[in-house]
Amino acid sequence: MEFLETLYHEIINFLGISQAWEILSTKNYDALKTYNGIVSLISPIIPLLIILELILGFIYKKPQTKVYKVNFIIYIFNRFIGRFISIAMVAFCIGLFQSYAPFQTSLTWYWFIYGYIIWEFGHFIYHYLAHKVRILWCLHSTHHAPEDMNLSVTHAHFFLEAPYADTIRTTVCILAGLQPELLFIIMFIDGTYGAFIHVGENLLKDGRLGFLNRIILTPSHHRVHHAKNPLYMDTNFCNLLNIWDKALGTYQNEMDDIKIEYGITRQMESGNFFDVYFGEITALLKDVYKAPGLKNKLYYLFMPPGWSHTGDHKTARIVRKTYLQRSRLISDHIKS
């Protein structure tokens, strides 16, 4: 009975319906006018869409069961070992850095816009480093391992990634003067939208969202980010506002003639939890062990994935640059 009760509570927590159910059962509808009440209504949307997406997968005979299975195991694993670490790091950063901010914002619409732009900059920094520093890529690669895209990919993270990400994002925002209350509102909105952009084709065939594709980062942009195609590698690091990708040269639209190939470039068994979760760490340790000299061992830790002490580099930057050069040559040859 204790096991069934634990399972029941885990399902309720996953669905995020406990607060909404309490409001409905007590008929305390005034609570819906508060921040917590609004959160209680929005929180179940993504989990329920995951279930709908899975059902549609079976209807369309594209269930992606391997991806759902591994991501579910990752979700359960992370629940037990990393439940409170990220929250603790956010609180620690607020307490440590708030006194150093040159000014403080308030809960107004213009500070909200300012705050979101700053938050997106912090997100860009974390996300960019997660792709460009190999030891950080080991934490982030779990999220890129699935070879199909669906909403369950939202839960595919190494348990230490959220504390690392929130440390950078929170530090940037607090030093830029964001009040904690404003920061928490932005974090909730961004977290909800950040989950939605992982929606798969079973639920949303065209992820461009019409004219919004020119204004914000859409599921189409994020599908590009999860691709291992040379053109798409290491692009679209933002979450909602693509302002920093456009400003810093990492913006890339989905091309109709280039079908997205999901996953990572390392040969791996995507249906194996241990390979998905620990595979990049194992590969890094092997490279460090084999590398000659302390300098090369440190380089393997902090240089981009694909760096090699032999000089045969296969980083995303080099692979993409080579692809673009070849594409230009072919285009020039056709024109001539």
TrEMBL record:
<keyword id="KW-0443">Lipid metabolism</keyword>
<feature type="transmembrane region" description="Helical">
    <location>
        <begin position="72"/>
        <end position="97"/>
    </location>
</feature>
<keyword id="KW-1133">Transmembrane helix</keyword>
<dbReference type="GO" id="GO:0050479">
    <property type="term" value="F:glyceryl-ether monooxygenase activity"/>
</dbReference>
<keyword id="KW-0812">Transmembrane</keyword>
<dbReference type="InterPro" id="IPR051689">
    <property type="entry name" value="Sterol_desaturase/TMEM195"/>
</dbReference>
<dbReference type="GO" id="GO:0008610">
    <property type="term" value="P:lipid biosynthetic process"/>
</dbReference>
<keyword id="KW-0472">Membrane</keyword>
<dbReference type="GO" id="GO:0012505">
    <property type="term" value="C:endomembrane system"/>
</dbReference>
<dbReference type="InterPro" id="IPR006694">
    <property type="entry name" value="Fatty_acid_hydroxylase"/>
</dbReference>
<feature type="domain" description="Fatty acid hydroxylase">
    <location>
        <begin position="113"/>
        <end position="250"/>
    </location>
</feature>
<feature type="transmembrane region" description="Helical">
    <location>
        <begin position="38"/>
        <end position="60"/>
    </location>
</feature>
<keyword id="KW-0560">Oxidoreductase</keyword>
<dbReference type="GO" id="GO:0016020">
    <property type="term" value="C:membrane"/>
</dbReference>
<dbReference type="GO" id="GO:0006643">
    <property type="term" value="P:membrane lipid metabolic process"/>
</dbReference>
<protein>
    <submittedName>
        <fullName>Sterol desaturase family protein</fullName>
    </submittedName>
</protein>
<feature type="transmembrane region" description="Helical">
    <location>
        <begin position="109"/>
        <end position="129"/>
    </location>
</feature>
<dbReference type="GO" id="GO:0005506">
    <property type="term" value="F:iron ion binding"/>
</dbReference>
<dbReference type="Pfam" id="PF04116">
    <property type="entry name" value="FA_hydroxylase"/>
</dbReference>
